[in-house]
Amino acid sequence: MNRSASDYDRRNFLRCGSFSLALPFLSSLPRRANSEEPSSSMSSVMPRAKRLVCVGTQLGFYRPEFFGSNPHAKLLRPLDEAGLAGDYTTFSGLDHKALHRDAHFHVYTLFTGHYSPRVSLDQFVAPTLGGDTRYESLQLCAGQADLSMPLSFTPSGVPQPDTVRPSIVFAQIFGAGSLELQQQTYLIDSGRSLLDDLLEEATGLQARLSESDRRKLDEYFTSIRSVEQKLQRRRDWLDRPFAQPDRRLMLPEQEDISQSMLLQNEDLMWDLMALAIKNDSTRVMTLNIPLTASALRVDGELMPSNYHNYSHHGNDDKKIAALVEIESRHLAGAAKFLKQLKSTPDRDGGSLLDTTITIIGSAMGDASKHTRENYPLLVAGGGFKHQRHVSCASVDVPNQMACDLYVTVLQQLGFEVDQFSTSESNLNGILL
Amino acid sequence: MSVRRFAAAIACVVIGVTLSHRGSAAENDTGQIRDQFIARYCFSCHGAEQTMNEFRIDTLGFNLEDSETLSSWKRVFEYVESGLMPPQDTAKSPHDPERAEFLSSLEAKLNRAGPQTGEAGTPLRRLNRIEYLNTLRDLFGFRQIELPNTFPEDSTNLDFDTMPAGLYLSPAHLSAYVDAATDVADRLLPLPNRPTIRSFRDTKKVANDGSNYWQRSKDPAALGFTGVNISGHAGAYWDATFKAHLCGVYRVRLQVSAEAAQGADGRPLRLGFYAFDPSQYAVPPRALRVDLPKVREVEVTNRELEFVDCDVPLEQGETFHVYCENRFPIGCYPDRGVNVGAMNELTSAAKKADAPTIRFESMLIEGPTAPLPRQVEFLGNVAPSSNEQYLRARLLPLAERAFRQPLDSVTERDLIGSVQKHLERAADPVFGLHYGVRRILCSPKFLYRETRAGVLDDYALASRLSYFLWSSLPDAELLQLAADHRLSQEEALRGQVLRMIADKKSDEFVKHFTGQWLGNRKTASVMVCDNRYQWSELVRYGFIRSTEMFFDDVLRENLSIQTFIDSDFTYANEPMRLVWGFDVGETMKNLETNARQSATWPEPTRLDLTSLGPETPPGVASRSGVLGLSSVLIATSDGVESSPIRRGVWILENLFGTPPPPPPPNVPAIDIDTRGATTVRELLSAHQQAASCAICHRRIDPLGLALENYDAIGGWRDAYASSNEQATDGKSASLATSAIDTHVVLFDGTPLQGVQDIKRYLLQNRILFTRCLAIKLLEYAAGREINAGDERSLGAIIDREPSEGYRFQDFLVAIVTSEAFQTK
């Protein structure tokens, strides 16, 4: 029986205590695989895809207009109009079979598969896929959220904060005024020995703590290792030049990240994600499209009611129309993003779309009723055999696990895994 | 969240059902009653034969050390207490006394488990964003220090941002701490071989930026500032391309001439240098002379062009404006409350004025040319050395203050040892100090507080107290008392609480406690539908400030805590009064123009609710207490519609102290069809179709409906807007015009009408609010949910309440002297 990284057990880790600190860090992650963990080793076959983009909305999608089983699905129109009709598949009948969670809080499980803290799909693949790029992964958020619920979780289940300001993402891709090389080198090098000292200090402190406090301090240990890696990466990339800014992308002079500007900021984020891929700044990204109880600005006008309100449409046609209007902007952004990937060739052959898997969805089944079944999910590109819509529900199997889809995604990315989080099977027969 | 709801549920039982049994509950463990009840009512659905919702009670056991087990039992308590379980529709259903007996037995059992389990104390918590920044500020006394906007936000999912559950330490945090520590070390220590920069601008290089105010009277020889307020006409300059890359003293060489021997004040014309960090502003600040620190002043006397050299101290990231200080008479720069006409007159006079100023030809900035005085001082005014005594003298006092307690020998040795090790490879001793400062600021001893379990020692108590009332580290006096072991004495503690409240730093408590308890943070971000309401950012500002000022009065004037329920005063600024229906003699648009001109926000003023004139608009008299505060009313709406549900939940949670339990697991999603409903009441009753919803909504909805006279932004209304009006706004016309009916029946059968009756109810049941406020303050201070194990602390606080009620400062003393406050 293969043991996958998703079995990573926090308590186990803690029990190892300071001893484990002496080991090469993150030894359980795919990249540093050893013979004991055969499931996470890289396939020798050239993967068909090498990038992963995970997009989640907190308020779901209005499913009757989202699933491709409806030939006139309004939400899919932007994709079809962008000439992407053969490049995506929507899935119905997939979910996490999630139990008792608060009305909205369970949506953070979209890419983890479970409400207890565990690694998300993007962070599972990031150490492997992100090896040769400036950033192992980037986490973006389309706007300021009313409920802060990140999509991305580290292997120890700690949420990764996402970047809300497009200007910061821009600077990450294209660089911003920075210190002299010599000083940066000093800070990075001394920063690494600083982390070693701190690790020692924290180990000493740990001995005096109660069990639950030790668990809390684990966050500190994990962070030290992660920052160490980040510094190493920064050091490696220190003297390599940034990409030249794309003059076609104009950031607004005055950055406005207020909640009403969600759709405008989201639009910029989709553009920036396309640029990050074209410039190979990173190969793993998440985009969080948050819940806001604020009225959104659409084409310069403030909508009469707010996004969250519309999601509780209670079958009111007018509210549904407004909700679909908002959601079709999400997919219009996606269509623009995917179209750019499709029109750009990949160095290794095919287009960037063929080598990039994009998952768009939500762990909110029906926001009007707060249901956790039958998620709206869409996969685009990635060299899959696409077929507009697949229903995973049948008479025998009412709903299949959403993580089954993720297993197939992982395999397409070159991971030899047959299990991820709550998966029970895979969708290879459908997508490969 | 369940723990706190559990506590609240207990409050309900204790106060509502069996007021007298609180004392005896702990001793009376009637295990038999409990087991019989469970066997009789629970096993059939949650046992071996049938396992509904994947929950089995027969195998749960009473190992309350296990947090999962403990929380399962708490959930059992909640569901039985609220009547959700056992289901009422089955043939056998417990009688009320049976239920109460079971609950008190279970409560006793859980009570005993409470404080002993590892879960009861406050888990290790790091400083939150606010505490971290304040601590850096107070530790180093820098003029300006802000966290970069890439600094990760704290989780906002919890009631208070002091709770460790929301205070993750992610790699992004540690990375930000490392960066911030480096920034602080740079500010304290000038590293050798610092790169210098040079920036030169002259009249030829100043392109027209499209603003009329760039140049005075289209005079090409005079550089000007782009701001639009009056200072912009004074003769001013800002090199927008310059930003200090390191802190230090910068040499500024100005080529200037004075147009006259003296300015409006009869003294030579002067230039003032005002520093600011552009990354901290959405728009570069206008010439807000009141806000920006003046870092340098210089006289310009020569009528011919000459070079004037000035040394300007700057923090990293700062730039500066240069203004002619005395082109216009002092007092010509009004900072508040000027009417539009006068302001316009002044502005146009300033534009045309022939009043002499200083003319700019060019400006050269170079630097840093020298370290800041602060940096020289940190080195001890001597050349740095790698001598151990020197390193100890420079670093140990800093570490002691940063860690908020005396250092043990291991900590000292490790710190100095690592610095010495670093110096083996470094060329200059300054690198060692730089390293040491970074190490101190990234240490878990700095970032985390309260590391020892059990009763807080004097130093930990000093920290808890100072982070409670100041959101920052303890000052010298608190630490001295801790060193003398006097802080845990009640009188000393009382003296400190009063001293700390009197200190300006307790503004932090006012700001962050009202921000979270009274909805101010939510108010700061809620989006208001401006088609529908008279809205302006000035109103938002008034909402936030008026809540702070109301709370501040209760705190600083030591008023009765019942003032929070009902008061004879409130606060409002002019734009708010307009929303409330007062005739303030101006339109909202004019008020906005005024505010733009005066460059300050309109402050709220106190409104005496006992002597309102005959012209007073309806509803103003009832704006007393916290239920009259606009921040509460707007934070419980979405900026578009009022939400009786959210308001009801808010009142239960924040005034009654009895938040409704979370929705039960796997409630079958009811397909609510609201198309037929025409009033809010009907909408809500549709929501109550399912019995499982109705149980809680019977408690929630009446309280919310009683507040329906307040619209989404807290304006007063006697009837809902008509559907016609809404249709023209593009609003879905679901609610017809109808008079608002605030007659409701409370969960205990009390009939109420409107908001004043809720206040009356609370005043009659005073213990509810006293208890609720105690829980809120303790949760904020201790950073954990107040649970069954804290009954004793709460009981002591309630029992000590004087017959005329607590005054707020005395209440705070009771809080900080309680066991719950003084235990981790």
Describe the protein in words:
- The complex is a heterodimer of chains A (432) and B (824).
- The relative contact order of chain A is 0.21.
- With 432 residues, chain A is α/β, with parallel strands linked by helices.
- Chain A contains eleven helices and eleven strands.
- Helices cover 34% and strands 12% of the residues of chain A.
- In chain A, a hairpin with a 2-residue loop joins strand 6 and strand 7 (301-306).
- Chain B is of the alpha+beta class and 824 residues long.
- Helix content of chain B is 43%, strand content 10%.
- Chain B has 32 helices and 14 strands.
- In chain B, the strands form five sheets. In chain B, strands 2-9-4-7 form a four-stranded antiparallel sheet, with no helix packed on it. Chain B has a four-stranded antiparallel sheet with strand order 3-8-5-6, with no helix packed on it.
- Chain B starts with a helix and ends with a helix.
- The chains are: A alpha/beta (432), B alpha+beta (824).
- At the A-B interface, helix 5, helix 6 and strand 7 of A face helix 8, helix 12, helix 13 and helix 14 of B.
Inertia-based shape of chain B: globular
Percent strand of chain B: 5-15%
Main beta sheet strand tally, sense and closure of chain B: 4 strands, antiparallel
SS-based structural class of chain B?
alpha+beta
Quaternary class: heterodimer
Q: Ends of chain A: how far apart?
A: 24 Å
Count of DSSP helices of chain A?
A: 11
Q: Note poorly predicted spans of chain A.
A: 1-45
How much is the average pLDDT of chain B? 80
Task: Give the percentage of residues in beta strands of chain A.
Answer: 5-15%
Side-by-side strand order of the widest sheet of chain B: 2-9-4-7
Strand order of the largest sheet of chain A: 4-5-1-8-9-2-10
Low-pLDDT residue spans of chain B: 1-28, 114-119, 205-233, 334-340, 666-672, 723-736
- Supply Rg of chain A: 22 Å
What average pLDDT do the residues of chain A reach? 83
